Amino acid sequence: MSGQTGRATSPLPRVLSIAGTDPTGGAGVQADLKSIAAQDGYGMAVVTALVAQNTLGVRSVHVPDAVFLRQQLDAVSDDVTVDAVKTGMLGTAEVVRVVVDWLREHRPAWVVVDPVMVATSGDRLLDADAESAMTELFALADLVTPNRDELRVLAQLADARTTEGIEAARAVARRWDVRVLAKGGHDDGPSSDDALVSPDGSVRVFRGPRVATTNTHGTGCSLSSAVATLVARHGDWELAVGAAKTWLTAALRGADALRVGQGHGPIDHNALVRSALPTPRLTEAWWADAAEVLDETLDCRFLRGLADGTLDPEVFAGYLAQDVHYLRAYEQHLAAVAAGSTGDAAAFWTTASEGCAAEARDLHHRRLAGSHADDPVHPVCAGYLAHLADAARQSVDSGDVSVLAAAVLPCFRVYAWVGERLGTAPVGHPFADWITAYGDPGFAASSARATELVEELARRADPALRGRMARAFRQSVAQELAFFRMPEQLGQPEQPGHAEQPGEPV
């Protein structure tokens, strides 16, 4: 059944790379698979050689037994329909012959040969006998994609009058009745133009800017596998080459930012894909991580009673008394974030701190009307405050308020989220003013702004700091749940062995 399924038409081009490896991921089958995926293809790989290489050069090459190579190829073709093949490093004449024999039996619609003879670093990757055997492979190919040095070798094998440029490519194309992509990456000047040369001598030039980077490791592998994928989709070589060149230019522009290796680093295979996608938001990842806790929060008895008006007013008053304890400390933490911020961010956090003080003074005091003034801090409230105090200590020790900002954010986000779900209270609802405060559009806007500011801090942070921010946020969300569950416990004696621990959700 699996074989029948594999031979059905696929919405994605199924592309097989037959090539050597690169343990640093910039060239060989590793680069091919990245390129195929970047063109939204399904990549497969058969390994011809195990290459010990990095961005500084090739150290050694191990060629597995040719029988095993054929077993790999047959394992693919016995099961999966291959829409396109790209060949890369083949290494020896024996390997070339195995690939040629397999292609004669299972030739897909599109075959791209990257005649990997000379690496970008200058290392020779194909022995002399294999160079001669490659001519049999060209007879089965639709497109050959040599770099400048490889084109010279092929032109010599074709007995061309020149080994340079388009005329050399024409000689190769005519000699083996194959398209040749003569690449301009190694030339000089402001542009890097590629020429697609057909066996009849016609030429289509694909122009593009030269990208100023030394990180070009694996460009040949990457381009050829991209073309193989795209031609299997479009059914047209010129469309495929043009789209692949646009993609490669973007990948070269992003190469320096990768910071991979000390020599000629790799290109950024995902640059164009990434530019088409929305930027992942770190704070949204934190929020999604807390989904289970948030569901429990909305389902707690306190919020259900608040929403339907059945909450005991005395229980609500006890909750407000704890909220006053919380807000007095929260005000100071917001002020600390403001002190460690600048510009508009400092102004926002300062305003939030002042608003927090007003909230504690006005709404709570009006609701409490002097009652519960002597209520001690409940252990759950103390646990939440201890967590915030710990985040504040981290910020003082590091001179960076990022962790504290992440820790105070859930008070904004959870309350705004709860308000959105509680909706509007009907006329006469006993807790209408409180529900209105939850769902106030101004508070929702403040929550959104606080989220943006923490997002900016998280983006600037290194992974270690970002991890501390995520954990501070997660713990605060858990403390919000504990705080909403707390009212049902107010006034009840603690049960031995069941006392809530500060800093832990209940």
Briefly summarize what is shown.
56% of the residues lie in helices and 9% in strands. It has helices spanning 2-6, 28-38, 66-77, 93-106, 128-138, 148-157, 165-176, 219-234, 237-253, 255-258, 271-276, 282-289, 291-298, 301-308, 313-339, 343-361, 363-368, 379-398, 402-422, 432-438, 441-460, 463-485; strands at 14-19, 42-47, 50-54, 57-62, 84-87, 110-113, 143-144, 179-182, 194-197, 203-206.
Description:
The chain has 506 residues and is an alpha/beta fold. 56% of the residues lie in helices and 9% in strands. Strands 2-1-5-6-7-8-9-10 form an eight-stranded mixed beta sheet, sandwiched between helices. A two-stranded antiparallel sheet has the order 3-4. It is elongated and about 100 Å long. It starts with a helix and ends in a 21-residue tail after the last helix. The model is unreliable at 1-6 and 492-506 (pLDDT under 50).
